Amino acid sequence: MRKYDNEKRYIEFVRIPAFGFQGNLKDLFAHKALTPEASVAMLKQMLEIRHFELKLSQLKMGTDPKRPGFDFVGASHLYAGQEAMAVGVLSAARKDDYITSTHRGHGHCLAKGGDLKRMMAEVMGKEAGYCGGRGGSMHIADMKVNNLGANAIVGGSYGIAVGAAISVKRLGRDQVVISFVGDGSTNNGIAHEAMNMASALQVPVVFVIENNALGMTCLVDEVTNVEFLARRAAGYNMPAEVVDGTDVLAVHDAAKRALDHARKGGGPFILECIGFRIFGHSLSDDRRSYRTREEEEEWNRQDSCEKMKRRIIEAGVMSQEQVADLEKRVEQEIEEATDFAIKAPMPSPSTIMDYIFSDTASDTISPELRTPGIKDSDLKLKRDAEGKMFYGEAVNEALREEMARDKHVVLFGEDVAQYGGAFGVTRGLWKLFGPERVWNTAISEACICGAGLGAAMTGLRPVAELMYIDFVGLAMDQIANQAAKVKYMFGGHASVPLVIRTQIGGGKGYAGQHSQSLESWFTHVPGLKVVAPSTPYDAKGLLKTAIRDDNPVIFIEHQLLYSGKQYKCVVPQEEYTIPFGVADIKRPGKDVTIISYSRMVHVALDAAKKLAAEGIEAEVIDPRTLYPLDLATLLESLKKTGRVVIVAQACLTGSFSGEIASQLMDKGFDYLDAPIKRIGACDCPPPMSPSLENEFLPDEADIIAAVKEVL
Fold it and tell me: How far is the C-alpha of 399 from the C-alpha of 429, rounded, in Å?
């Protein structure tokens, strides 16, 4: 721990240079900092972005002279005016560097070498677009050139960028991740979580703040009490620089320093580009309500494209006529891209369910991916004389085996390293695999999940832990809007081998914010697989499957299962996995089917024993995975018994038990001899007092009473 001598002192903040570039093209040519050919390429990209955006404006507003009245569906947030920012940064970057983008992502994609035809087709929702029309204007991505995608959630990509930078560093590569963000996003919580994580881990990420002084319609001055947003760097002990974002040469000059700093192991960097957006927040935005014509005219005199044209002509690289000819060629390319997109077919409705999940897994991997220096004896935890082990030990053993099998598997979260996690489940992993594979994070649930996503998209197989499921509200954007959707939104081009481990509770007196069962939140989100094992055997086999799966998996454990002796079971030492979507009949029966998952399976089994003493044979089935759900096994049991009771620890209203009941009614109504009965917790927050918590949670008596109701 850090020690302080308590002597009087002053804390110094970092010094941030601003507007330091005073050069011109001739100086850059003389110092070989830029070639004439490169300067022309920069101008061409800027003109492509400008005219692409102008064309979108004409099409959206029905003012295109060649296509009067034409319109297209969808939002359009234009980048026009900010061309120097994207082109300046990416002309200084390497082709294999990663980027994350914003809802103004057209400029970033084109500056990364994007194709005008595919871009226009995507904006119009066509199959020929970058994402097959699934993402549209706000979700352009191109994984082939390491463009990790535009993001319609303000600030949504900060964690993804940091996660990608973690991959770069952990895999020993020398790429840099460039995170393009708007000024409005810098006040979002995940911005600070991500900057802190990036600084703590010293990963190679450059946060490029595109400051056009407006967060939608709010002035920066209205919502932030700093003159320059680059001052955020002082709070996270990272360098920063402020540049004129209308001058592509100034941006290029500063970006080279920022990228070089990050690439050489210096850690994160903030580059703030001060500029202007020509249009409003979107094309449906009446910008006159918050911006005057005089302000626009003043900024237009600093127009980035006009400024670069003048520089090229003054340097003698091109004549005015040649520049005009270049611009005409760009305009023609835009016209051709527009014609292509208009004629391109829409996606077939029959493909609507394509790209939600990957159908791949790392079931077979190269031997060289195995972690060196790990002995087989390191991977097996002690069992009792009957070969039984605790639930928490089974989870730990699964993590050991998968981390040894594949060095791309990493584990991070709050307190998971030296301490071994709040419940001791990850104990010993930090010592065995080291801090490059197992590390603690700040209390930053949103960034934990966002970084997990970014790392998963760029080569790692992360297991991220959220200490309690109650905390997922802090991370739900990163889980539901990001991790669950990128595969689909990006037209199937993303792979997300991410596991988020978390715990549900109840029965320990932890009250309303540490005891909830919120699994149905996740089952409602397409793109997530949801697993809730009830036994040590299932926990180990399903976690190994989850880690190998190329999709985001929410892996839900129960606090009371971790160390309860009554929950121990035999766990083979031999290698095994359990496939998703395969339910397990925990107890055969003929009179009634009891369906339950997680810890409530054990309560149901205890109830079944008591019912058997009365001559009632209940079949107890554990789905094990809620999504995918093994409906076939549940229906077969219903056919046999004709009666169903569904038990879940969640509050009854909105519980996943309702979804199971609905599907059984839809597919098995003719087999029912009585209404389906559901059992759940009371519709109130979990209380702390034992007398109230006992009343809150479903128990054996509730199950027995429900069974007798349906018989």
Answer: 8
Residue 282 pLDDT level (bands cut at 50, 70, 90): confident
**Does 238 share its domain with 385?**
no
Over residues 156-171, mean pLDDT: 97
Q: 3-state class of 690 per DSSP? A: helix
Query: Has residue 172 got a pLDDT over 90?
Result: yes
Over residues 186-210, the mean pLDDT reads 96
Answer with the residue of higher pLDDT: 276 or 540: 540
Q: Is the pTM of this model over 0.85?
A: yes
The whole domain housing 657 covers: 584-710
Check: CB of residue 248 under 8 Å from CB of residue 84: yes
**106, 192, 514, 558: the active-site residue:** 514
Tell me, yes or no, whether 550 and 460 share the same domain. Answer: yes
Confidence of residue 12 (pLDDT cuts 50, 70, 90): confident
E strand map for 137-204: 177-182
Going by C-alpha positions, the residue among 55, 123, 49, 53 that lies closest to residue 91 is 49
pLDDT tens per residue across span 653-706:
999 999 999 999 999 999 999 999 999 999 999 999 999 999 999 999 999 999
Which two tokens mark 84?
């120097």
Cβ neighbours for 115, distance < 8 A, ≥ 6 positions apart: none
**Secondary structure of residue 241 in the 3-state scheme:** strand
Please tell me the distance from the alpha carbon of residue 569 to that of residue 176, in angstroms, as a whole number: 47
pLDDT band at 288 (very low <50, low <70, confident <90, very high): low
Torsion 273-277-282-287 (CA) sign = positive
Neighbours of 395 (CB within 10 A): 25
Which residues are 529's β-sheet partners?
553
Is 445 labeled as catalytic in the residue annotation? yes
Q: Is position 472 within any domain?
A: yes
Residue 220 has pLDDT above 90, yes or no: no
Please name which of 566, 567, 537, 542 lies closest in space to residue 553, comparing C-alpha atoms. Answer: 542
Please provide residue 450's backbone torsions phi and psi, each rounded to the nearest 5 degrees.
Answer: -65, -45
Residues 6+ apart with CB under 8 A from 180: 85, 86, 89, 99, 100, 101, 102, 108, 208, 210
Residue keyed to tokens 């089917």 = 593
- Cβ atoms of 637 and 586 within 8 Å: the answer is no
CA 469 to mean position of chain CA atoms: 17
Whether 558 sits among the annotated catalytic residues: the reply is: no
Residue 234: Cβ-neighbour burial (10 angstroms; 0-12, 13-18, 19+): middle
| 565: number of Cβ within 10 Å | 8
Q: Taking the C-alpha atoms of 18, 20, 24 and 28 in order, what is their torsion angle to the nearest 10 degrees? A: -110
Model confidence at 9: pLDDT above 90: no
Is residue 602 located within the same domain as residue 656? Answer: yes
CATH code of residue 374: 3.40.50.970
DSSP-assigned states of every residue in 98-110: EEE--TTHHHHHH
Residue 415 has a CB neighbour count (10 Å cut-off) of: 16
Residue 20 falls within a domain, yes or no? Answer: no
What total of structural domains would you count in the chain?
A: 3
Of 170, 172, 113, the residue nearest 144 (C-alpha)? 113
Q: Which residues contact 195 (CB under 8 A, 6 or more apart)?
A: 158, 207, 232, 233, 235, 236, 238, 268, 270
Query: Helices 304-314 and 83-90 meet at what angle, rounded to 10?
Result: 60
Of the residues 122, 210, 393, 445, only one is catalytic, namely 445
